[in-house]
Structure prediction request, 119 residues.
Amino acid sequence: MIRGIVSADGVPTITLTIANRDWTAIVDTGFNGDLELPKDLLDLLDAFYVGRVKSALAGGQTVEEDIYLIEFLFDDRVVQAEASFVSGSQILIGTRLLQDYHLQINFVSKSVQLEIVRQ
Prediction:
């Protein structure tokens, strides 16, 4: 089980360990991919280039971006995920990465909980 918090700004977050460092990651239920990572991490990961994809953003915008396959520790197991790398320092976790999980966000208690349902 993974536990996180809802920030003071109302953003659900969990901690991920990527490239031997702990990062605060935003659980983005509006993002249907796996991961969006800072460009600075690309050279630190053994990322395998998969290709380019078009993604629809909120507000009707469409972007084309490179997608890479990475492996990282998630919920005490090594998982493969498709990741895009963008400017900035935020990490976004999308719903495809969470497809085997029950996600509970409690804004009153400011808690986030991910529990695996299928393995």
Q: What stands out?
A: The domain at 2-116 is CATH 2.40.70.10 (Cathepsin D, subunit A; domain 1). Residues 27 and 93 are 5 Å apart (CA to CA). The beta strands are 2-6, 12-18, 21-27, 35-38, 48-56, 62-74, 77-86, 91-93, 101-106, 111-116. The two ends are 13 Å apart (CA to CA).
